[in-house]
Structure formats: structure tokens, C-alpha cells
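Q&A log
Question type: sequence-to-structure
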Amino acid sequence: MRKKTVIRIASAIITDASARCLLVRKRGTSHFIQPGGKIESGESPLAALRRELYEELGLTSEAAQFTYVGSFTDVAVNEPGSTLSAEIYHIHPEKTDFQPAAEIEEMYWYSSHHDRPILLAPLTVNHVLPLVETLACQSLKMKTLPANQGHID
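Response status: OK
Response body:
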């Protein structure tokens, strides 16, 4: 019996002002996934994610822009016989006009009201999409709070 391979990745839930989530499809694959990638030896999950987002989308970011969402495990759709162990972070950047680069062939802004049939990876369907609307709404709410919200004058 063959031992299953566990692939450690860091992925981003990138949301925009319309509460949509950015999904990407790598060249030569059929399923859409979150942007991100494999964590290299000696690299922290957040450092790996920031590197991957820059390579794949041209997104420059500061560590403070990310919120850690959690660690999730699911079937690796693009690596048969493997399991993903994913560290997921959320970011709601000001700039959302990304250009696909490196191995990214296509990008898609997904919403719960999407009208385009697309194939989604198990990690996306089972763990990420259920969180998207909540995370996007929280980000928008935080950006619209008055500067003195929560402070006693």
C-alpha cells in the first residue's frame, strides 16, 4: 500500500469590495483554486504566501495585511494520491486588478451568485467558499468604522 503524500501549502482568500473571492487556474489544469503555493523548507507559511502572490499575481503586500484563517486538510486535486495541508490567510487589498503570471493561466472573481460553470478544488468547495462572504463582510465593515469606534473620549 502506497503512503499518501502530504503537501504543505499556504493559500489566500483574496476578497474585493463586492464580496467576491479571487480564484486561479494553473496552466494545464481544469480546477480553480486559491492563489498560493507550496511552502519551501525553512520558509514560514506567511512568507511563502507573500512570495507566491507576488510571483503569481504581482501582489505586493505587508504581513500585517493578512489575517490568519486556519489550517485545513483536503484532497489535492492537481496531485493525484496526495493530500493538502493548507494554511489559509485572508487579505482584502485595495488593488484588485491583478495580472496572471508564472503558472497561472486564468483568474476568476467568484461570488455566490456566479453564473459561469467552473470546476472547483475540494479545498475551495469544502473549506474556503463557506468562509468567503463572512470574511469579505468583516473586511468591509472594518474599513467603514469611524476612526474613534470603540474608544472612550
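Response note: The beta strands are 5-14, 21-26, 31-32, 36-38, 67-75, 82-91, 104-110, 119-120.
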